[in-house]
Write a structure and sequence with these properties.
Layout lengths: L7 E11 L6 E7 L5 E4 L7 H7 L7 E6 L13 E5 L4 E2 L2 E2 L9 E5 L5 E9 L3 E5 L9 E11 L3 H9 L40
Length: 203
């Protein structure tokens, strides 16, 4: 069976970005055979360019391709780094230290009521600096992996599409909750990218 619209796909892969050392790559995230990436093709769970490179492949096929940052998460936007009043994150006058610490990704609401993920950059006595950019903004994404399975999706998988299932990781472009810890069945986390919850080609 080949990968086409509405097919359920399992894959193992490694995601690299360009290293600061010219000509070298840095491993950011990976999904293994034991904990593969799982998604349904063509329903908006993945980056369009990611799917484009997998179309027509079948079980056992290997893949290796690069998605330029323009087709992934765009350029890094300095204006998306904000200093917010510390009181926003306080409960009864105390900072919620279980959620608010440097490097952690926290959910916020924008002026229009939309949920956005923000990474805590620094914390001062008066402000919390957060970065609203996707952790992979400005990065070219280099994928290398193997298709493990292509099949018809189950009713549960189809229901998850409308209910909320991809988090913000592993190639996903929608915000759902049923894809496990971070998104799309990928439980392997990487501190540099915020883990599967913020990387793996997803937004």
């Amino acid at each position: 069976m080949k990968i086409t619209t509405d097919k359920s796909v399992l894959a193992e892969y490694e995601l690299f970005v360009d290293s600061e050392i010219e000509g070298e790559l840095e491993l950011m995230e990976k999904a293994t055979v034991e904990q593969p990436m799982s998604f349904i093709y063509g329903v908006g769970m993945m980056l369009p360019k990611f799917e484009e490179n997998l179309f027509g492949k079948q079980t056992g096929d290997k893949f290796e391709f690069t998605i330029n940052f323009e087709d992934a998460y765009g350029e890094y936007d300095d204006e998306s780094v904000l200093d917010l009043d510390r009181t926003i994150f306080e409960i009864d006058g105390k900072l919620d230290e279980e959620m608010i610490f440097e490097g952690n990704v926290v959910p916020l609401m924008d002026n229009e009521g939309n949920r956005v993920n923000a990474q805590v950059v620094t914390i001062s006595d008066t402000h919390v600096k957060v970065d609203l950019n996707h952790p992979l903004a400005g990065e070219n994404l280099h994928f290398k992996g193997t298709i493990l399975e292509v099949r018809e999706p189950t009713e549960k998988e189809l229901a998850a599409i409308t209910g909320g299932g991809c988090g913000s990781g592993c190639g996903c472009s929608s915000s759902e909750s049923s894809c496990g810890d971070g998104g799309c069945g990928c439980d392997n986390k990487d501190e540099k990218s915020g883990g599967c919850g913020s990387g793996c080609g997803c937004n």
